[in-house]
Write a structure and sequence with these properties.
Oligomer: single chain
Distance between the termini: 21 Å
Shape: globular
Number of helices: 12
């Protein structure tokens, strides 16, 4: 980094997380070094700018774009048929990895609290939190839990190692709402992903996630307060009936389309180059 900085190179980074997901010290040091030499930090929302500790560095907000290049050819009926979900179910989708036990507990408890006789929880990835060697008893109980849920139409718990781009539409088109079970995260790609497929989103009131949900009129909850989660899910169900998902899609196409976001990046680069030339 120092080599390129000495050559008057402009260094731009996008702030996805406050801290790396990995606990390895080398990765944390890499984070710190990149911020040390950065000329611009691109933020995905206003909240991370407000909380930024790098006031001497230029901060710019450029939103996460939609996933417009993903295949989207299947109907809800076709998607549910392939996943084995009945057409009359109200489907809550959690898409992506669970990072810890707390996120998994949040999902399970929130689903239990949600009052709907035809509810179904859909996941693409279900964690193996316990190893057979270190915690065999806990792992066995977890496997039994999954086996029981396999025969319960309230659950469609898939555990796909890698969901191909062509299969992402299966999960997003099959569901009614997208639930984001994050506890302590700055950003998520699941909001623009849900908007791409015209879905209502429920997520935590943290970081840029909470501010984006509030800005777009989607329900948010306070992590750790189950009554708040239950209220958000009930609100989401009402919004589904009011066609809020299509409103989300239109908002995304207007504000987060790929061409617009790409142009925002390009304008930033051009501005840096022009300012660099004028200061020579």
């Amino acid at each position: 980094m120092e080599f390129w900085k000495n050559k008057n190179t402009k260094i731009i980074i996008t702030k996805h997380n406050e801290l790396p997901h990995s606990k390895k010290s080398k990765i944390l040091i890499a984070y710190q070094n990149i911020y040390k030499y950065a000329d611009v930090i691109i933020h995905l929302g206003e909240k991370s700018v407000d909380n930024s500790t790098f006031n001497s560095i230029r901060n710019s907000i450029i939103p996460h774009p939609l996933y417009e290049n993903l295949p989207n050819t299947l109907t809800q009926l076709e998607s549910r048929e392939r996943l084995g979900i009945a057409t009359d179910r109200f489907v809550i989708c959690c898409f992506g990895n669970y990072r810890n036990q707390d996120e998994l507990n949040l999902t399970i408890n929130a689903f239990k609290k949600f009052k709907d006789s035809k509810k179904t929880l859909l996941t693409a990835k279900w964690p193996k939190l316990f190893g057979w060697k270190k915690e065999p008893t806990k792992r066995l109980k977890h496997e039994i839990y999954l086996k029981r849920k396999h025969f319960d139409k309230r659950y469609c718990l898939n555990n796909i190692e890698y969901v191909s781009e062509s299969d992402i539409q299966l999960y997003l088109n099959a569901c009614d709402i997208v639930f984001i079970p994050r506890i302590d995260t700055l950003n998520t790609g699941n909001i623009p992903l849900a908007f791409t497929f015209g879905k209502v989103v429920v997520g935590p009131e943290i970081g840029n996630i909470g501010s984006l949900l509030q800005r777009t009129g989607n329900p948010s909850f306070i992590p750790g307060e189950l009554s708040s989660v239950e209220q958000a899910l009930n609100q989401a169900k009402t919004l589904v009936l009011a066609d809020k998902g299509q409103e989300n899609y239109r908002f995304g196409k207007q504000h987060w389309n790929v061409n617009l976001v790409a142009q925002m990046h390009l304008d930033l680069y051009k501005d840096l180059i022009l300012n660099n030339d004028s200061n020579k």
